[in-house]
Task: structure prediction
Amino acid sequence: MLASSSPAARRGHDFDFLEGSWLVHHRRLKERLAGCDEWEEFESTADAVRFFDGAGSFDVIGLEHLGWSGASLRLFDPVTEEWTIYWANSSTGRLEPPVTGRFVDGRGEFSGDDTHEGMPVRVRYVWSEITPSSARWEQAFSVDDGETWETNWIMELARQT
Result:
């Protein structure tokens, strides 16, 4: 089931599309929040599973190019009808502060507070262009409480066959 804006459809099924194995093309700013416009590109693989009848999702992504791997944990709150997404990577071994949000009309937007190199930032994840065989994820940072955003990481996912 693809993401939907209706609460009944959204309840525990927004991330059903992600289950399985993916080839991932990354575009990542070489420097964040530094006025940089130079991007690095690389490939990786990711594997995702769902649990709690779809109200939970977990994935692991190998980022050999960066020298570490990462994992995301997504949990759906049926009271608020929002998802909370936690990120961890093998280079730090800790959960980062979560982002929270929801899908509307097939587009998921999630945000939260974090730090980047000691500086407070607002973080936003956007899931879009979701089909049975592909999806797009973007990460952006804001240092002015969401007035402006710098997109610093884009992943284009293609289902592995």
Q: What stands out?
A: The longest strand covers residues 39-51.
